[in-house]
Design brief:
Elements (H helix, E strand, L loop, with lengths): L13 H14 L3 H14 L4 H13 L3 H14 L4 H13 L3 H14 L4 H13 L3 H14 L4 H13 L3 H13 L9 H10 L3 H14 L4 H13 L3 H8 L23 E9 L4 H7 L3 H5 L2 E8 L4 H7 L4 E4 L9 E4 L3 H4 L30 E6 L9 H4 L3 H8 L4 E5 L8 H9 L6 E3 L7 H8 L4 E5 L2 H9 L3 E5 L20 E5 L7 H20 L7
Parallel strand pairs: 1-2, 1-4, 2-3, 5-6, 5-8, 6-7, 8-9, 9-10
Helix pairs in contact: 1-2, 1-3, 2-3, 3-4, 3-5, 4-5, 5-6, 6-7, 7-8, 8-9, 9-10, 10-11, 11-12, 11-13, 12-13, 13-14, 15-23, 17-22, 20-21, 22-23
Protein name: Tetratricopeptide (TPR) repeat protein
Organism: Azospirillum picis
Keywords: TPR repeat
C-alpha cells in the first residue's frame, strides 16, 4: 500500500511576502517606497503589528519622526510583548526630542529582553544627551558586557570619557574601537586630539587633528582645536590663521554686519567698528591693539561687554566705546577683536601693547592691611558656565588652605555665584578677624575692580578676567593654573609674554591644587620678607 502523500509546505502568505519586499526595499535604502508599500498593506490589514512596525522603521529612516513614533506606538499597542518594538519606538522618540518617553521605551524593552545590547547602547546615548554621565557610563558598560567587540560602543564610551575629563581612559577606549570590526573611526580623531591636548601631549594632539583634516578637510572643530594646540605650543602665526575657523563652529556664528570685514589696510577716511567676542578676559587682553588700529583709520568704535565700558572709555579716550546692546554709531568697516593678532602678525617675540595699557580711576580707598602683612587681592573662581571652569576654579579645600596663608591680608574681589563661598571657607579655616576683607559688594564694574587692584601689593587669582585685568594694569599678579591651561599661558614656563608682571603657578597633575598653594605660600613668604626688610617697597 502506498504511503500517504506528505502535505505540501504552505506558501508564504501575501502579508509575509509584502513585509519581506518592504524590508528589502528598506535595506536597499529605498525607505520611501517601503513606506508606501506598508501603507498599502495596512489599508487591507490595519491590525498587523509587524506592518505598523516596519512602516514606522521606514518612516524613521526617512526622518519622518512623528509618523515613525505614531506607527511604532500602534505596533506596541497591538503586540505589547515584543521588545524590539519598544526599542525602535524609543529611537523615534529620541530623534524627535522626546527624551523622557524614549527612556521609558528603552527601559521597557530591556525588561522584556535584558540581553539587547543595542538598546542599552541607545539608552546610553540618550543619557549622555541629558548630561546624566554616570548613568550613561553604566548603560555603555552593560552593552559592552554583552558585545565587547562592537567598535562603535567603545568609540562612544571614549566620547563619554572625554566629557568626564578621564583622558587616559578616553584614549584607551578609542584604541580598542580602532581594532574592533568597523574600525578605525576617523571621525573620532578630533576627540582623540582633545584628550592628548588636555594631557599636554601637543605633538600627538596635532597629529590627530591633521589626520582628521586629511579625512574631512572642512571639519571646523578639527581646525579650531588645531588652532588652540598651535597657540598653546607658541606657534602663534600658524595658530592665528586656524583661529579664524571659529566662525564655522555651530555655537559661534559671525555677527552678520552689512559692512565689510577689515583686512588691516590703512583707511584714512573710514570709521572702523571693533566688536568684542568671547569672554571678558579676552577683551581685556586684546584691547592692547587699539592704539595700533586707531593709527590706521579715521575713527575707531569699540563695542564691548557692559561691565568693561567705563574702564575702557577711561583708558582709551580717543576711542568711542559702546556697551553691547546699545545703539552703534555709523561705521564703514568692522572686525572682531580676536582677529587683530592675525592682522598684525603677532608672534611671541612681537606682542604689542606693553602694560600698563589700562587706566584705573584714582582715589579708591580700601581698609589698611594688618601690620606686617601683604595686601593681596584674591579671586578663586570664574564663571561656572565656562567650558573649563571645573578645572580652573579652586575647590573648597584649596580655598580654605589658601586663606590660611600667614603674612597676608586678603581682599576678596570675587564676584558672581562663588562669592558666597567665602563665609564658609573663612569659618572652616578658623581665621582671625581682619585676615580677609570682602570688597565684592562694593564692586559695580571693572573700573571699580581696577581701582582696588591698584591699591594692592599683589593679586592672586585663578585664570579668569581679573588675571587679565591685573596684567593689563601691570599690577604684580600670581595666576594659579590648571594642569591643562588655556592657550595664552603656554606650557612649562612661570612667566607670560603677554603680561610681564605675572607669575604663573601650574598644577603638576590634573586637579592637584595642593602643590600650587604650597609654591604660592613660599613665593609670598619671600616677598613679605623683602617688604619687611625694605619698608614701603611694595606699598601702593
Amino acid at each position: 500500500m502506498a504511503s500517504p502523500a506528505q502535505p505540501p509546505v504552505p506558501p508564504a502568505t501575501e502579508t509575509q511576502q509584502t513585509l519581506e519586499h518592504a524590508l528589502a526595499l528598506l535595506q536597499a535604502g529605498r525607505a520611501g517606497e517601503a513606506e508606501a508599500l506598508c501603507r498599502t498593506l495596512l489599508s487591507r490589514q490595519p491590525q498587523d503589528a509587524d506592518g505598523h512596525h516596519l512602516h514606522g522603521v521606514a518612516a524613521l529612516a526617512s526622518k519622518h519622526l512623528d509618523e515613525a513614533a505614531a506607527r511604532i506606538a500602534r505596533a506596541v499597542a497591538l503586540a505589547p510583548q515584543v521588545a524590539r518594538f519598544y526599542t525602535n519606538l524609543g529611537t523615534a522618540q529620541q530623534g524627535g526630542g522626546r527624551s523622557e518617553p524614549a527612556e521609558r521605551s528603552y527601559c521597557h524593552a530591556l525588561r522584556l529582553a535584558p540581553d539587547q545590547a543595542e538598546t542599552r547602547f541607545n539608552l546610553g546615548n540618550l543619557l549622555v544627551s541629558a548630561a546624566r554621565l554616570q548613568d550613561a557610563e553604566a548603560a555603555y558598560q552593560s552593552a559592552l558586557a554583552l558585545q565587547p567587540a562592537r567598535g562603535k560602543y567603545w568609540a562612544n564610551l571614549g566620547k563619554l570619557r572625554l566629557r568626564q575629563q578621564r583622558h587616559v581612559e578616553t584614549l584607551r577606549a578609542y584604541a580598542i574601537a580602532d581594532q574592533a570590526p568597523g574600525g578605525p573611526f576617523p571621525e573620532s580623531d578630533v576627540n582623540r586630539g582633545m584628550a592628548h591636548q588636555r594631557l599636554n601631549q601637543l605633538p600627538q594632539a596635532l597629529a590627530c587633528y591633521e589626520r582628521a583634516l586629511a579625512a574631512f578637510p572642512d571639519n571646523a572643530s578639527a581646525h579650531w582645536n588645531r588652532a588652540l594646540a598651535l597657540l598653546l605650543s607658541g606657534r602663534l602665526q600658524e595658530g592665528w590663521e586656524e583661529y579664524e575657523w571659529r566662525w564655522r563652529l555651530a555655537d559661534s556664528p559671525p555677527r552678520g554686519f552689512a559692512q565689510p570685514l577689515w583686512s588691516g589696510q590703512p583707511l584714512a577716511d573710514r570709521t572702523l567698528l571693533l566688536h568684542a567676542e568671547q569672554g571678558l578676559g579676552d577683551t581685556l587682553q586684546f584691547v592692547r591693539y587699539l592704539p595700533l588700529v586707531a593709527a590706521r583709520v579715521k575713527a575707531l568704535v569699540l563695542e564691548c561687554q557692559p561691565p568693561l565700558r567705563r574702564l575702557l572709555a577711561d583708558s582709551f579716550p580717543g576711542v568711542t566705546v559702546v556697551a553691547a546692546g546699545e545703539a552703534l554709531p555709523d561705521f564703514d568697516v568692522q572686525a572682531p577683536l580676536l582677529s587683530l593678532p592675525r592682522l598684525f602678525a603677532t608672534t611671541l617675540d612681537a606682542i604689542p601693547g606693553a602694560p600698563p595699557y589700562l587706566l584705573a580711576a584714582n582715589g579708591r580707598t580700601v581698609p589698611p592691611p594688618r601690620p606686617g602683612t601683604l595686601a593681596v587681592a584674591l579671586v578663586w573662581g570664574g564663571d561656572p558656565s565656562h567650558r573649563n571652569d571645573q578645572q580652573r576654579s579652586l575647590d573648597a579645600a584649596a580655598l580654605a588652605e589658601l586663606l590660611g596663608l600667614p603674612g597676608v591680608t586678603f581682599y576678596s574681589v570675587q564676584k558672581g555665584a562663588r562669592a558666597g563661598q567665602l563665609a564658609e571657607a573663612v569659618a572652616g579655616a578658623q581665621l582671625p578677624t581682619g585676615h580677609i576683607v570682602d570688597l565684592g559688594p562694593e564692586i559695580g564694574d571693572f573700573a571699580d575692580t581696577a581701582a582696588i587692584l591698584q591699591r594692592m601689593d599683589r593679586v592672586v587669582t585663578v585664570d579668569t578676567s581679573v588675571a587679565h585685568l591685573a596684567g593689563a594694569l601691570h599690577v604684580p599678579v600670581d595666576i594659579l593654573l590648571p594642569y591643562s591651561p588655556d592657550w595664552r599661558w603656554l606650557l612649562e614656563r612661570a612667566d607670560s609674554p603677554w603680561y610681564p608682571a605675572a607669575t604663573l603657578f601650574r598644577q603638576a597633575a590634573p586637579g592637584e591644587w595642593g602643590g600650587v598653594i604650597r609654591s604660592l605660600a613660599s613665593h609670598l613668604s619671600r616677598i613679605r620678607s623683602v617688604a619687611t626688610a625694605h619698608p614701603g617697597r611694595y606699598s601702593r
